[in-house]
User: What shape does this take?
Amino acid sequence: MRRIGVFVCWCGSNIAATVDVAAVVADAKVQPGVVFAQDYQYMCSEAGQNIIKDAIKEHQLTGIVVCSCSPRMHEATFRKAAAAAGLNPYMVEIANVREHCSWIHKDKEAGTEKARVLMRAAVAKVMLNVPLKAGESRVVKRALVIGGGIAGIQTALDIADAGFQVDIVEKNATIGGRMAQLDKTFPTLDCSSCILTPKMVEAKASENIRLITYAEVEEVGGFVGDFKVKIRKKARFVKEDVCTGCGLCMAKCPSKKGLNEFNMGLNNRPAIYIPFAQAIPNVAVIDKTQCIKLNTGKCGLCEKVCTAKAIDYTMQDEFIEEEYGAIVMATGFRPIDASKFDEYSYSTCKDVVTSLELERIMNAAGPTGGVLLRPSDGKHPHSVVFVQCVGSRDVSGRGKPYCSKICCMYTAKHAMLIRDKYPDVDVHVFYIDVRTPGKNFDEFYRRAAEQYDVDYIKGQVGKVWEEDGHLVVRGVDLISNEQVILNADMVVLATAIEPDPTARKVANMLTASIDTNDFITEAHPKLRPVESPTAGIFLSGVCQGPKDIPETVSQAGAAASKVIGLLCKDKLTTNPCVARSDELLCNGCSCCEKVCPYGAISYDTHLINDHGVKETRRVALVNEALCQGCGACTVVCPSGAMDLKGFSNKQIMAEVEAICL
Amino acid sequence: MQAVSKKVLDRARELMRDGTVSRVAGWKAGEFFYDCEPALFETEESLKDLVYNRFCAANLSKFLITNDIASVADRGRTLVLLKPCDTYSFNQLLTEHRLSRDNVYILGVGCEGMCDVDRIRALGIKGITGVDESEDGKKLTVRTLYGDGEIDVDGVLVNKCETCKGKAHKIFDELISDNEEEGPRGDRFECVRELESMAPAERFAFWQKELSKCIRCNACRNACPACSCRKCVFDNNASGIASKANTDSFEEKLFHIIRAFHVAGRCTDCGECSRVCPQGIPLHLFNRKYIKDINEFYGEFAAGEEAGQRGPLISFEAGDREPNSVSDKGGD
Assistant: This one.
């Protein structure tokens, strides 16, 4: 005989304003099997939990339904409360009457009706729940960080500092990421390299950190505490442990047409190159699309000049297979392609550049040696126009709907640096809004506008074109409500930033969810901002959303602390809601095995005794230690032999029937 | 086809006689010569009843598993006669480990299209006693109680043969066929496009009308080679689905829709469901709709083209369509 208790939470006014909680309680009381129902203002509070615990004891409840927020929020809380009162924690069901009901409805009558339906579905399900027991799994004491920019480096350093092994997988030939390309950093204007390169060196020097550069994650298996990852280390054609980074090969290489990625393609580099002087590892790499030897078999100059004998044209991609307890995504960003915006003439006028290109032009190690020169003719510009929000806050479909967050500040930085170094240059900035929340940020912006006389124009640019050897910018000044036409020698586009295109692929392999803009979703936007909803996957840096360097570094530390917290554990409690196959119904068709993302299903041929009919045949077996309870197998199983504990086909059907009937 | 037919019957006898196979899965005439049905011949002598003619439309792949012939090794090998379209089903069953390849000897038999006796009768021909085929296989001389008449084969083909997938066998040990190279015939998705062009209400009315004819005889399920479950969910009270397939006006639809979903991505479009339906419900339309969608979403895929395939519905690639593409396409 089932004795079910129903607890309806008001969530302050979050639920109670849209759902008549008393009506839900009254309806619950008349449901078959329900012996107790009560509402309370905050069910998750200590007093609320005590109501649940007391009711379980007093009414000898065999199962409970809590009508509250999403189970992602408080299922664990209520399971713990139930366990404390002696009830199996898997006899708890949550009816999500907040995210699924009160938050998305305005009409109280309709909201109340929906809450009742959700409550009835949960009651129907809990009637079929059975007590489950959680098992244990191991924790591999090693972390993987995907991406070697400032986010990845900082996360790795913090994890390593706590004494755990960390591998950084970086797709480029060096770590450093976007920050290495920057000149100065706001709001203090300290040199980016000066603060980044020591961290890069520290990462290389750390005994606990292994740098796997020029490599990509190829396959991910396993689960929290026990991931199995296959990493493809792309062929560099240069032996990493032999190359001394002397650079002789770069000087001799006759193929010099490759675009220098580090300088945003503003100049060329040889086919064999070290990305930049402070690269880590300071080892050359051959671009196989540009190398004459690799493409025609002739040349071989670099091999001849290399005194260290580091060149190996026969090198193949290598695979590294490793186990990890935790994985951190730090895949970073790239600026969007500005050529989608014809009105700014980025693809046709050389003197229209993106902010990251300007960053390289302003950098002492950049293509112009840090001297501000027009890319078209190498002359000194006298007027520079900045255009903000190129593709940011753009709902036209060409750009991104979000604010890229960093552009207002770096544009103020660029404007200020130009005015400081070249007081003869006029600087204009077109903006929609100037957004400067952050410590010392608004002061910084005001310094640019007030002390450095940067001309801020509220309005957008409609068109940029070339005329008589200079650029013409036509925009609007919304404050004077007039059209503005400016002559400019250079136009700088503050292009929106987007997640690096590899993020989507990596997220798929990790089964980490992503949002419509390909940013990785957090487990909770406020309370669990550095964790993915997929256990054991953590987020660091811009892959989670636009952020500047200070924010990235803080988030990197936060992600590291979560990883450390996980790696400190010796055992993890496993989810008992795993799949199970009924061998009497199993066809042995292998569909489940093919869809299982965790390799948890195998097959065995053995004697089956079906009510006296004995037959030897092939049936599926679930490895409960590997199964993560995703349910893919239960959906694909044609005969219904595969079922998920805690979410059985029968339970789901009971819920559906409670909703429909 | 008569020449092929004679060779097939002779070869089956030979293989039985020389011990290559212990039995033959083929066809025999039912009450009338045109009522050909699957049959198992355990002795050489019984093979006198084996036939292969224009009325042997039944797909023997499924017959192999319903009789558990191919899973039991110690009973020796079974010879099975498979027409080109039947080989797709055989491969699919191999993929799903429902057959053991070693236990079966496949004689691929050439086919020029099967005939539907009801379509002959629909021409007004009654009292049919026999059929002879012209040299080129394009004409049939139908002998009746009331005299003989000549008809075009093309006009009386079984529905599934009108849009034949091609005459090539996808798996065999031995082949008796003289038209392997012949490609597909007609556009099998034309009928789906017609359905898609209907307004939702019109389409609903169409299916309401068709599915209301269902008498739940289970012929479609029993003939379907993709419906190969040991215990069907509709026969399993514990599944919670059995009750969804009652024969009231709403739930009869669910039986066919659930069945179509269960075979989606596995159905080889062998057309047996529609062919065996005593009520003439065009059940193949469901399957063809799914096949067309799968082709459009994930690239051309033919279940059973080869054994061991991994169908698009049970594989994942990063470039796969997002679920919202269905609603973008105008689905309701």
Notes: Chain A touches chain B through 25 residues (CB under 8 Å).
